Amino acid sequence: MTAAALYTAAARAIAPRKPMRVSEWADRNRVLSQKGSAIGGQWRSSRNPLQVEIMDCFSARSPVRDVVAILPIQFGKSEIETNILGYTMCEDPGPVMVAFPGEVSMNKWIDQKLSPLIESTPAVARVLTSVASRESSNRRHFKDFHGGQLYIEHAGNPVRLKSTSVKVTLGDEFSSFANLLRGGDDPEALLDGRNSAFPTTYKRLKVGTPELMGLCRLTMLWEKSDKRLFHVDCPDCGHAQPLQWSGLHWTPDASRCWYVCRECGVVIEEHQKAQLLAGGRWIPTGDVDARIRGYQANCLYYPLGLGPRWLDLVHMWRDAQADPGKLKTFVNDRLAEAWEDPAMRAVKHNVIADRVERYDLRTAPAGVLLLTAGVDTQDNRLAVQIVGWGRGMACWILDYVELDGDPADAEVWTRLTDLLNKPIEHARGGLLRVQATAIDAGGHRTEAVKHFVRARRIARPLCIFGAVPNNAPVLSKAKLQDVNYRGQLDRRGVHIQHVGTVGIKHLLYSRLSADADKPAEARMVHLSDQLDQAYLGGLVAETYNPAKNRFEKKRGAPRNEPLDTWVYAYAAAHHQELRLHRFTKADWDAVEIRLVASPGAPAANDSRGTQPEPAPVKTPNDSRGTPPPRRARAGLGRDGWGL
């Protein structure tokens, strides 16, 4: 060897490593296996230019820390993760965790992506400390490599997301992660906590297709990101624009389709897409200073030969119009957008806030004829809502109060008694009292609720639990809980009733939706302009999840106690001695006549305007604990008025 060659070899050996990006590493080292890829052989980033910048965010020299990517199905999301993993193991070693929503998806990824990566890419196989399956360093869900370790976990068990410190976390199909884990932990918070030991060098990727609007984790992160969309230049005018589904046009018989530039209107054919993608770039459309780097693309960006053609997508879209399930799947999987139930669109917070009316809280408008209340029990407070009911079960929100204090303490129940026993002034001059109150006994203060209901210090208290079946009735038949000294059920003890919360929430949301186009006087749900934004947001804090056939709290929404207490107040209106939902016009007329003529209302010609003390509210049981007398009329009390 000559001296020049020797010096060159020595210089190459001691020279610092040249910075390499993830896409460069993949082009040099990644070999695709046909076991898990549509095209085998050497990886080429030029096949799908949209993947390059997302991968390069995880290069050692990149300042990016958090990345969220919302992409359609079969767009190479797993290949992006696999390339990042291979680069980290070979070029920037450190502990890595790849997390999945469940065990099934985790095992599929191991079989289809990780194992072929190790078998087909020599650079990755070389850094593993062992490839023997019997070695402790090469288990199915754990791999040891030079300078780091690979942990493969699923979010179905909180233990799997704890007690591990990693520099890089990759969350696959992140929108499918559970809302809460067993024990109440949030999987996203647990996963992010794994990076605490690497405050300046950590990197996180959360990728997948979106799901339900309001519940989708990816959409919530996207709203906090810089919202990058891939812009392509029009081949005619050069205007940069993202490809949007609304820009795709087709003939009536769907035999041909084309894209239209939104600036000049020129027709762009699909065969031009390869050139468009090669010259495209990601451009932020949100806050450029956002902490999270966000990427979103739809099915129009599929590279030719690696996804459905535009015309195939048009046929999918047309076929889905008559099938809500297919339409949701197309919107989620192809357009990469969160699905919003049409019934939920009219019950958004901002829409409800624009519908408030001018009337004072704790003052019943003219249409209110009877009152009920709902109470939600928390460990440190009682949430109380008083609802006024009128003809056709139209309702007015008359008060919402949160009483601070542990329900295990008698003091907060004393304040609740005072609040519910205090009459509410009617706009026509009378006084109204709460006729029934449903109190949630779920949670940690069940016995405290039972004790309060036994005391019967308010009119018609109900001890309730949320029903498990989604088709449960509004209010179930009461079941005795207490026993006497003989061990027999005590008819004078507390009764337990179950409330069909799912059906009631559907009713409320349908009414709020139907009220959107009605004048104020014709609405079924009336909201005071004195209600704060926390109440209005809490009233619509949940959305319906058709996959689970139940309502779930929206991400980032206020506390949902306003919704729960309205549900309980509606259930209280179904008390066996009230049954307001069964009232006829004659029943409502009779209640209105009694209201005007009640002792609590001032005389029509009384110029002084004074209000005498109202008559006491009749309760189901008198002080001796005797059972209530048989009702004279269905849905009314023994006096025929339900008062």
**Which architecture of the largest domain does the CATH hierarchy give at level 2?**
3-Layer(aba) Sandwich
Number of helices: 19
- Which class do the helix and strand fractions yield? alpha/beta
CATH superfamily (homologous) name of the largest domain: P-loop containing nucleotide triphosphate hydrolases
Most strands sheet:
11 strands, mixed
Q: So what's the CATH class of the largest domain?
A: Alpha Beta
- In round numbers, the mean pLDDT is 86
Straight-line distance between termini: 109 Å
Give the CATH topology of the largest domain. Rossmann fold
Number of domains: 2
- Taken from the alpha-carbon principal axes, the silhouette is elongated
Compile the SSE list and pairings.
Blueprint: H1 3-14, H2 22-29, E1 31-32, E2 41-42, H3 50-56, E3 66-70, H4 77-90, E4 96-100, H5 103-120, H6 122-127, E5 138-139, E6 142-145, E7 148-154, E8 168-172, H7 187-193, E9 203-208, H8 217-223, E10 228-233, E11 240-242, E12 248-250, E13 257-260, E14 267-268, H9 273-278, E15 281-284, E16 292-296, H10 310-320, H11 324-333, H12 342-345, H13 349-353, E17 363-364, E18 370-377, E19 381-389, E20 395-404, H14 410-421, E21 424-426, E22 431-432, E23 434-440, H15 446-455, E24 461-466, E25 479-480, E26 495-499, H16 501-514, E27 525-526, H17 533-539, E28 542-545, E29 550-553, H18 561-572, H19 585-597
Parallel strand pairs: 3-9, 3-16, 4-7, 4-8, 8-9, 10-16, 17-21, 18-23, 20-27, 23-24, 24-26
Antiparallel strand pairs: 1-2, 5-6, 6-7, 10-11, 10-15, 12-13, 13-14, 18-19, 19-20, 21-22, 25-26, 28-29
Helix pairs in contact: 2-4, 3-4, 4-5, 10-11, 16-18, 17-18
